[in-house]
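Loading example: each entry is read as two labelled lines plus one structure line.
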Amino acid sequence: MRFSQARGQKIVSTSTAGTVGRVSGFVVDPSTSRIAAVRVKKAASGDTLPWTDITSFGVDAVTVDDAARITEASEKIASLSGRKRKVIGRRVLSTAGNELGRSSDVEFDQESGAVTAIVLNDEKTATGKVVGIGSYAVVWQED
Amino acid sequence: MTRLLRTSEITGRPVVTLAGEDVAQIKDVVYAPGRGRVGAFTLAGRGLFAGPLPVALAWSSVVALGNDAVMIADEEVLAPLEQGVDQPATSGRQGNVLGARVLTDTGTDLGLVADVIVQVSEDDSACEVVGYEIESSDAAGSQADTLLIPLPETLSASGEHLIVPGSVTKFVRHDLAGFGAAIEGFRSHLGGED
């Protein structure tokens, strides 16, 4: 699934069957190339849903067992957030030191949260993994 | 695949950590003793008004020399220049290659060194000096303003002259395409003579 497809998806509590928020973005941990947390809007309890607290990341909805899973960002998540930690709209450098383009979208695995491919300049897709997200560039290791 | 680069193309390139931070830019190339290969890079800060940095980047710490950036593991690998490496190529009289006059061992003046051509191995483990770009004098038998001459493994050099074998003129090229083959040809030619 792509970030662009997941954005806006509703988050539903399996205990109350009610919508408890919507996906507004993603926090990626470059040390693991995985989604660390989902950014949430329109939730009462906070704006962050850690990936490990998700019951299922479905095609049409994200399920959680309790609305309280959505919390304020932990220190770790907060350190991975912010304008310079974003993955979309950034310069992408390969580990070989070549500029691949600008990131326009990201593909991820719904089971594991692993980032598996990056879409460059809205056209070509490079498979691989994130190794770094810094103030200068997203560093991408190509497969 | 090995790649050929002009060192002037490397200067100014950002030095980027694998974490994606640009920590410096390449200021100058420092050749290892004996001049056969690149030993290190001196660095300047990023930004228009940034000055030189007190630390350098040893070639052994380069993860990859790419078209757009020089990749390093992290900022920790930057360290002050060690003793025993030559002065930067474009500064300091002792180590200055650029502007030196190229003479063949038979006494022909080929011109002045305008740039240094290096070859980067496929895995970025070595960065070897393989030739010079010369602003030619007429003796090289060419109308072009600049030409590329391949280098043997060793050559004699002073701040004033670079001495190359006279047979080098047969392997002169005008652009980087095909220069790799000329280097191979020249070296096997020299090997055959010994």
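The longest strand of chain B covers residues 109-120.
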